[in-house]
Each structure stands twice: as C-alpha cells, then as structure tokens.
Design a protein that fits this description.
The chain has about 300 residues and is of the alpha/beta class. Helix content is about 35%, strand content about 15%. The protein has 13 helices and seven strands. The protein has helices spanning about 5, 25-30, 35-40, 45-50, 55-65, 105, 125-130, 145-160, 170-180, 210-220, 235-245, 255, 280-285; strands spanning about 115-120, 140-145, 165-170, 185-190, 220-230, 250, 290-295. A seven-stranded mixed sheet has the order 3-2-1-4-5-7-6, with helices on both faces. Helix 5 runs antiparallel to helix 13 (about 280-285) and helix 9 (about 170-180) runs parallel beside helix 10 (about 210-220). The chain is globular, with a radius of gyration of 20 Å. The termini are far apart. The model is unreliable at about 1-20 and about 35-40 (pLDDT under 50).
C-alpha cells in the first residue's frame, strides 16, 4: 500500500469521520507511520493525489475530544478567541496574585481531592477528565491567557460540570496562595508541554522554577503525584532536574512501581492520564518524542 492510500480521509457529510472508524484506529494507524509519511499524508501533494481532504493533526485533536461534543459557539461577550502562543510571565501585568475564589461556589463538593493543571490551555484535557470523574475529584486549571480561561469556563457551563473550574493566574505567583486555601487534599499537579522559552536569557520565564516546585511539594498530599511532560528535550530535562533534586521528599514513580514502563533514560513510555493533550497530539503527529515523568510524594 503506497503512502497516498494510507492518507486518512474524511468520507461524508463534508468531512465527518464515520462512527465505525474509531479515533483509536485512526490515531494508531497514523502514528505508526514515519514522520515523513505523516507530513506527506497532510501535504497538498497527497491530497491532490487522492483528490480527497486528508486528516490533519487538528482533526486528530477533534477526534480525541469528540466525547465532549464542544461547539465552537462562544458567548457574545467573549467573541472570537485569538490565541497568543507566547506571553512573558514576568511582565508586571502578570505579577498580581489571582484572587482566591469561594471554593463552595466553584465546586459542588470542595472537599474532594484536587488535580491542578498548570498551563491548562484550551482546557479540554481537564474537561475530559472532569467529565469522567464527576463525583470523585475536582479539577482546577491555571492559565495565563485570560481569553482561554473565559472560553474554558463558558464550555464548563455548557457541559454542566460542577467539579472543574479555570482561573486566570500566573502559577509562579499564585499557586501557593490558591492551593493552600483549598479545603480538600491536593492529589495531583500536572505541567504538560509548557512554553519552552528557548533563548537562554528567557529561561527565567519558564514556569518550573524552584519556588514553584517547593510550593507544589509543600501542598501535595502524602502519596500525591506530579506529572510533567514536554516534547522539547531541553525543557523536559530542566523540569526533571528540578524535581529530581527533591528526592528526599518525592520519588519517580518507576522507583515505587516496577510495573510502570520507562525507557533507559527513565521517561515514561506512555501517557498515564488516559487522554492526550492537544500539544502532545500535534507533536507526535509530526514525529516528535514526548518526554514524561511522574513523581510521588513520600513524606
């Protein structure tokens, strides 16, 4: 079978994938291809050869989150959301701590164990988890781009979820103040594909800094976990080194559970959350490796 015939195509209704074709089947097929073939499958050349539109990484994202059934409809007040990919968290406009919400207003039961996603982006990753654990956990997304927060909370209302909330907050400034006031235990913190801030002089803008690591560990419940991942090795190593430095309090999950599969460098071989983030899907679609670590607090 040639590369053009492997292109994953829409079949009817202007580009709707048939229900008989599962997202797992589509994703698995595409991700088994070499990165050059994936790019070909999305190229104009491939689409011209097959004379049908090809599946792109954005379509895989839509398939991954199809269960949420989110519309692109937003409130008139919010309007169209243009996403600014990079912001400077050291800017004075982001230096003001976020107001602590009334936890009884944002969560139906604020005593449930809490997961915090730092840099929650569109919020769909956290919404997917919240929808599957409505009476078990609460979910809090911290995001520095305010329009994304407004849209995410709009979607939460549309989904009628009572165990998830998003806050416009600079996590390096507000994490401790917010989480320390939460009535229930902090059971999981995720930092997934944060802005890499490649230039050396901008490394201080990276979200994982020692004071944030200290705040996370201080507030984390015993046996609570931290999940980090990045498609940029330099960033993944930086995050790993900062959490590895706290080995007297937290340990990599592989040291506690030999059933957790890792490569020779200690990176998790798969995402333990049961759902891929949007950035993760885009990166793997392009052939990038995802570097993942999970830690657990002991003391």
């Amino acid at each position: 079978m040639g590369v053009p015939s492997l292109c994953l195509r829409y079949f009817y209704n202007g580009g709707v994938v048939p229900r008989s074709v599962t997202k797992e089947a589509l994703s698995s097929l595409l991700l088994t291809l070499p990165s050059s073939s994936r790019r070909y499958c999305c190229s104009n050349q491939a689409c011209a050869t097959t004379e049908q539109p090809c599946l792109r990484s954005t379509d895989l994202v839509a398939l991954e989150y199809a269960d949420l059934n989110l519309t692109h409809k937003v409130s008139e007040e919010l309007g169209h959301v243009r996403i600014r990919q990079h912001v400077n968290p050291l800017s004075s406009s982001f230096s003001i701590p976020a107001d602590v919400p009334d936890w009884n207003e944002v969560f139906k039961d604020p005593t449930l164990p809490l997961m915090v996603d730092i840099g929650s982006g569109s919020g769909r990753f956290l919404m997917w988890l919240a929808k599957r654990n409505p009476e078990v956990k609460n979910y809090l997304g911290l995001e520095i781009r305010q329009k994304l927060v407004k849209r995410a909370n709009f979607w939460v209302k549309e989904l009628a979820l009572s165990n998830i909330h998003f806050l416009f907050a600079n996590a390096t400034v507000s994490f401790n103040q917010l989480v320390s006031t939460y009535p229930g235990p902090l059971m999981l913190v995720s930092i997934l594909c944060p802005d890499p801030h490649f230039k050396k002089r901008h490394h201080k803008r990276r979200v994982v800094q020692k004071h944030l690591v200290d705040s996370i560990i201080k507030n984390l419940m015993r046996e609570g976990q931290v999940f980090i991942q990045s498609d940029v090795l330099e960033v993944a190593l930086d995050m790993r080194d900062q959490f590895d430095a706290e080995s007297d309090v937290i340990h990599h999950i592989n040291a506690l559970n030999q059933c957790v599969l890792c490569d020779n460098e200690g990176w998790l071989l798969s995402n333990p959350m049961g759902i891929s983030t949007e950035r993760e899907i885009h990166a793997e679609f392009e052939g990038a490796k995802i570097y993942r670590r999970m830690y657990q607090k002991m003391a």
